[in-house]
UniProtKB/TrEMBL annotation:
The protein, known as: AraC family transcriptional regulator of adaptative response / methylphosphotriester-DNA alkyltransferase methyltransferase
Highest taxon listed in the record's lineage: Bacteria
Source organism phylogeny: Bacteria, Bacillati, Bacillota, Bacilli, Bacillales
Cofactor(s) it depends on: Zn(2+)
A GO MF label: sequence-specific DNA binding
Pfam families assigned: Ada_Zn_binding, HTH_18
Residue stretches making up the HTH araC/xylS-type domain: 85-183
Length: 190
């Protein structure tokens, strides 16, 4: 399995959302309880400063953590999860480029028709929908952590046009990029 290239804050955001799409791609370990979980675990969320992330279950175990009894991260995954993980990894490494379906299929080692059907079945999202979500998450992270303009973030996140960026951002996050940044700044001040 390939290592997912995400920042701490991006992983933390997926944990807060209990996003099952990232299960098996990284694990959340809580220093105070010495337990590790899947990103989709519905247990009460720990304080951010008490969290560490590991790419594999083995790394979490070697660091002295035990498996959560609620989400059971030690339960085996299907081999198909490796394919989904490969696609996610490709998206996270190339989100800011123009991506063609054939490029993803070639990277995953399957036909593009199989990849499209399989990915939709496993994630309940199309490849384009998932890529859009990843780009929006990257943009949201940049809005929170930088002073870059919305236009700079639009292109850095991989969008080809500002109008598509604004429309997609509002659809996924429920706010315009400017409103999202303002709301984040207001919550951090309080």
């Amino acid at each position: 399995m390939q290592i997912l290239t995400m920042t701490f804050d991006e992983k933390w955001e997926q944990v807060l959302q209990c996003n099952g799409n990232y299960d098996g791609m990284f694990y959340t370990a809580v220093k105070t309880t010495k337990i590790y979980c899947r990103p989709s675990c519905r247990s009460r969320k720990p304080k951010k400063e008490n969290v560490e992330f590991y790419d594999t279950r083995e790394e979490a175990k070697d660091a002295g953590f035990r498996a959560c009894k609620r989400c059971q991260p030690d339960a085996p995954f299907s081999p198909q999860l490796t394919l989904v993980s490969t696609v996610f990894d490709y998206f996270h490494k190339h989100y800011n480029e123009r991506i063609k379906l054939q490029d993803i299929a070639d990277h995953a080692g399957v036909s593009m028709y199989y990849l499209e059907r399989f990915f939709k079945k496993e994630t309940r999202k199309t490849l384009n929908e998932m890529l859009e979500i990843i780009r929006i998450d990257k943009a949201a992270s940049l809005l929170k952590s930088t002073d870059k303009t919305n236009l700079e973030i639009c292109y850095e996140a991989g969008f080809q046009s500002p109008s598509n960026f604004y429309k997609s951002f509002r659809k996924v996050k429920g706010f315009t990029p400017s409103d999202y940044r303002k709301r984040f700044q207001e919550t951090t001040i309080q």
